Amino acid sequence: LDYVCRDDYGASMTRVSAWAGLQYFAGRHDLRHDDWHEDASPVLTWPQGNAWLTQQLAQPLSERLKTAQIVTQIEPGRQSVAVRVWSEATKKHMLWQAQHVILAVPLFVARRMLGDHWPALSQHAARQAYAPWLVSNLLIQAPLLDRAGASLAWDNVIYADRSASAVGVPSLGYVPAGHQILDIPVGEQVWTHYWALGGTSASDAQRWRQSLLQSSWQTWAQHVVDDLAVVHPDLPTQLKRIDLMRYGHAMAIPEPGVRSAPALQALRQAHGRRHLAHADLSAYSVLEEAFAHGQRAAYQVLSASGISRRI
To answer: What is the C-alpha to C-alpha distance for residues 68 and 85, in angstroms, rounded to an integer?
Structure first.
């Protein structure tokens, strides 16, 4: 139970609401063989990972998709919305005028763009908690020693007591990039290691956030290596490179009472010509929730524009 709360919500089950803890299991359909025809699979995966989904979304937009545009401020107007951006491509400030704006960003980011023009946003953004994460990619120059027990899988969890370790918070384990290759692995391999650091309290998360910010990359790299060496003692001698990525506010933590907060429910409604679409509006970071809020925001824009929606 604690593992899945840390995995899905970034924090221990002592910090996650009971409703969200149950939702993790209740929201997953049991994909049995009789639910699918012979050629189908319940697993959706591509060589590019989720990049494939991004490419499919971007393809029909062609020149309408503007990337490397950093939004700094959004100002509501009577007939339009002004969006001030910094163009990384041209190194210039630009001003976009839009009839409607859909903000698919975390709520604390939306508040920085919108200022205090949306009272419910200011109120809830101060309440919503986020989990810091560390994601590390390890380049291993040769296959590690084969050990007794389960073979490498997509998700490999280390079953050991590491409360006395330097970090004191169990990692989520690691994923080998070539886990679906049926051949015996040879040569270099890439593993991705995950550490959710939301902890058991807000002070826990703040302490880990400060540690990620202030400690050297060498310190955290050693933490990762030490964590994996518990079950792979030859890893340090085979490690060729490690890349670490800090996420200070990786995902919303569904603490008790957050999901049902009146301010959060109000944010699901349009505020003039501004609309929010993000998993934060459900108080937890799940893909299906983000998709639903994006669809809702699109329907709000269509309705305000007098366009009948098509399903």
So the answer is: 10
